[in-house]
Design goal:
Layout (H helix, E strand, L loop, with lengths): L7 H15 L6 H24 L4 H12 L7 H4 L2 H8 L7 H11 L3 H4 L11
Helix pairs in contact: 1-2
Length: 125
């Protein structure tokens, strides 16, 4: 059964299945279709990961929010109270190690992206 690729484990499983299908001597129409769909899904996931790797941590969080239809309230479980969520998203506060771990585990954002340095806004609102 073909499913969306949402994280690195899904990606690894899809690559494994692609390898298995490519190793077959003959593919019937269903297997051939499955192979093509998995290749497209893997390509899309890889491009998305490369795109996230170009963003600073806050922009990566915002992008993941858009992709998953999340609100600021949904980020409380990763960043703490609502005011802290706003501070992080407005770049008034940097994310700490605990937040990084929770964001990585919960939103599948690469550690490499989350630990990237970024500027804190000095504007007083």
């Amino acid at each position: 059964m073909i499913r969306p690729i949402k994280n690195d484990a899904d990606y690894a499983n899809a690559i494994s299945r692609i390898t298995e299908l490519i190793g077959c001597n003959r593919l019937d129409n269903n297997d051939s279709d499955e192979l093509e769909i998995l290749k497209v899904l893997c390509s899309h996931y890889a491009q998305e990961q490369r795109y996230l790797d170009t963003l600073d941590p806050v922009e990566a969080i915002k992008q993941r929010m858009i992709e998953r239809g999340l609100s600021k309230a949904d980020l409380v479980q990763f960043l703490g109270q609502q005011s802290r969520v706003s501070e992080v998203l407005n770049k008034k506060r940097k994310i700490n190690l605990t937040m990084i771990r929770k964001l990585h585990d919960g939103l599948d954002i690469a550690y490499e992206c989350l630990v990237r340095d970024y500027e804190i806004s000095s504007n007083q609102e």
